[in-house]
Amino acid sequence: MILAVDVHYQKDKAVVAGITFQNWQDRSPENEYVLQVENITAYVPGYFFRRELPCILKIISEYNLQPEIIVI
């Protein structure tokens, strides 16, 4: 499974959205996922893992996804 994901920030909250598909050639997603995340860490340049990574891990955990590849 391939997971394409992005995060939108609003002050101390975020909305993380992802789509899954099986092959790069797929014309449409297999599934769509959206999740709101509270208490987001402040932005610090170069520290992707502190702000965006927890959101990505939360959507993976919440929906029990098992991607082989993650596209951000």
User: Mean of the pLDDT scores?
Assistant: 94
Share in helix: 10-25%
Compute the separation of the termini in Å.
14 Å
User: How are the strands of the biggest sheet laid out side by side?
Assistant: 3-2-1-4
Please state the CA-atom Rg, rounded to the nearest Å. 13 Å
Strand proportion, as a percent range, falls in 35-45%
Poorly predicted tracts of residues? none
What does this entry look like structurally?
This protein has 72 residues and is α+β, with helices and mostly antiparallel strands. Helix content is 21%, strand content 39%. It is built from 1 helix and 4 strands. The chain has a 4-stranded mixed β-sheet, with helices on one face. A hairpin with a 2-residue loop joins strand 1 (2-10) and strand 2. The mean pLDDT is 94.
